[in-house]
Design brief:
With 369 residues, the protein is an alpha/beta fold. The chain has twelve helices and 17 strands. The strands form four sheets. It has a seven-stranded parallel beta sheet with strand order 7-11-6-1-4-5-12, with helices on both faces. Strands 14-13-15-16-17 form a five-stranded parallel beta sheet. The protein has a three-stranded antiparallel beta sheet with strand order 8-9-10. The structure holds flavin-adenine dinucleotide.
């Protein structure tokens, strides 16, 4: 089956020069843009300008009654907005969104399409990639421009067959980096023969641009060809999940607890701590696996990627898979009774001690401050 897919992709090898611009799927829910959409507009802008002066970063907005979101996309760096609106697209459906985005890609031929690695992005991107006969790199943590340097690197340093890659190919490609093998190595992936190049990117990893109030750009209204018959699912009710209520991604302060809490009741102290400092509760996977807290709180490679202003790691050792989800936090405070725990190496403030003594002391200080 994979052989057939590969053949199909090779047959689909396209005139790469027909593709231009970087698109960001600007995910919105209830008429509000997701943070990751703004982060990707920032990253898309950086890539676009590295490719060429006249390459644009464009936001792709899909929904209904969402005209107001174009302004926010422009304020964060989008130079154009492709707007696809229809009452049938008011709520996300896999069928509906896949169909209309594929239509827009066929018509406007973006060179790169980025999606947030959210539930919706992870659902959409592979379907669209398959329909476009192109590749997709999921869960990227880094993107770079220029394939040729990669090919040179691969030729010198690996035994891979690079004969099908043309180092003089003038087209620009992106090198997509993602953790592999449980975070123990970083894989670099390219998409040399087909377009668009597609990636899902973890929330919290890329930088937003500074907001420029009043920035404007072109809005291109794309008429979707869609009927109710195209959508095989019907939304009966939308129930907010615990994950949305937790909102780790957008939190400015996170207080996370790990196995060092000893048992589930330790999270009562972490909750008290979070309430005091205005943060939300996170956790390591060990605490989730022990059944002490719901997975929606988990930070890390198989949980949520976060980038708060302050991250408190309480009784967490700092395994690579946990670090993968929080190491870009602005300030990391580790509370651990083991001075040699790996988390201490990346912590800005390392407090060596029993968390059951340290956290109440911080809470007391807070009250007295
Ligand atoms: P431990 O490693 O057991 O650390 C507990 C720490 O608490 C120790 O450092 C100890 O010194 C300290 N401690 C103990 N008592 C106290 C006390 N009273 N006061 C202060 N400190 C104390 N992990 C994640 O977190 N997120 C992920 O997304 C994730 N994904 C994974 C994906 C894969 C494919 C794999 C293989 C693993 C993944 N893991 C993930 C698991 C990860 O490898 C670690 O097992 C896990 O992070 C350990 O959790 P922990 O730090 O809470 O526990």
């Amino acid at each position: 089956k994979f052989g057939a897919i590969k053949e199909k992709a090779q047959e689909a090898a396209v005139d790469l020069s027909a593709y231009k611009n970087v698109w960001v799927f600007a995910e919105q829910r209830d008429g509000k843009l997701m943070n990751v959409a703004l982060e990707l507009i920032g990253e898309g802008y950086r890539l676009a300008k590295e490719i060429s002066e006249d390459t644009k970063v464009c936001a792709l907005l899909v929904g209904d009654g969402i005209d107001h979101l174009a302004e926010e996309c422009f304020a964060y760096g989008a130079e154009a907005v492709y707007m696809i609106q229809d009452p049938l697209l008011k709520n996300f459906t896999t069928d509906g969104y896949t169909k209309v985005i594929k239509q827009a890609i066929d018509e406007y031929k973006p060179e790169i399409v980025l999606y947030g690695a959210t539930h919706i992005g992870r659902d959409l991107a592979p379907r669209i990639a398959a329909r476009c006969n192109t590749g997709l790199t999921a869960d990227c943590t880094r993107l770079d421009v220029k394939v040729s340097s990669y090919i040179d690197f691969a030729k010198k340093n690996t035994t891979l067959d690079t004969s099908t890659l043309d180092p003089d190919d003038p087209s620009t490609g992106i090198k997509q980096t993602r953790p592999a093998f449980g975070g123990n190595l970083m894989a670099t992936i390219i998409c040399p023969k087909t377009r668009p190049q597609m990636s899902t990117v973890r929330p919290g990893v890329m930088q937003k641009r500074d907001k420029v109030e009043g920035a404007t750009g072109e809005v291109i209204n794309v008429k979707p060809e869609i009927t109710a018959a195209d959508i095989r699912t019907q939304i009966v009710e939308i129930v907010k999940s615990a994950k949305e209520l937790v909102s780790l991604t957008d939190a400015e302060i996170i207080c996370s607890g790990g196995r060092g809490l000893g048992d589930a009741s330790g999270f009562e102290l972490i909750q008290k701590f979070a309430d005091k400092v205005g943060g939300v509760v996170g956790s390591s996977r060990a605490a989730v696996d022990a059944g002490w807290i719901d997975h929606s709180h988990q930070v890390g490679q198989t949980g949520t990627t976060v980038k708060p202003k302050i991250y408190f790691a309480c009784g967490i050792s700092g395994a690579i898979q946990h670090l993968a989800g929080m190491q870009t936090s602005d300030i990391i405070v580790a509370i651990n009774k083991d001075a040699d725990a790996p988390i201490m190496e990346i912590a800005d403030y390392a407090i060596v001690g029993d968390l059951y003594k340290v956290i109440p002391a911080i809470i007391d200080e807070w009250d007295n401050a």
